[in-house]
Amino acid sequence: MSAHKAQRVIDQIRGRSYEETLMILELMPYRACYPIFKLVYSATANATSNMGSNEANLVISKAEVNKCTIMKRLKPRARGRSFAIQKTYLPYNYCNERYILR
Fold it and tell me: What is the β-pairing status of strands 60-67 and 95-101?
């Protein structure tokens, strides 16, 4: 998933409560919603087990998405030419996401 696709979903859930966030993510029609749903659910489980927080009181105070680091390579072509290739460091990850729950 690209950073731009994830960013339009993140903009909708930033600053909302946990329960409202889950409802929004379940009803939005974008494919980026499911991985974000899993991350929010996991972050909430970590907050409740490690810090003893209540799920009803949690709010997503900060959520951001950044582009992944890209390696730039050249592929040799005919007649001494070359084409640029952009590879991500992780083959399945095109963006880095970070959430802060309070």
Answer: antiparallel
